[in-house]
Amino acid sequence: MYTIHVQGKAAFGATPSNYIADMLRYDQGHLISITPSENDQVPNVGQAFEAIIQCDRFTQDRWHSFGLGAGIINNP
Fold first, then answer.
1. Which CATH architecture has domain 2-74?
2. N or C: which end of the chain has fewer CB within 10 A?
């Protein structure tokens, strides 16, 4: 199981938690922690956040295609 660090901004009017939930179903993961940044809200873009996630697969290009920075903290 991979542990990854994700940062970015929620899009399409979603909350950070909902935005991440959509990503997790593809990599069969679950959210460990999420920290929204209330001071970094950009109009029409979304709320910034950082999250720690554990997942069975890690498709970094897919995370990047959603505008999220994602990197492995530890490998399985």
1. 2-Layer Sandwich (3.30)
2. C
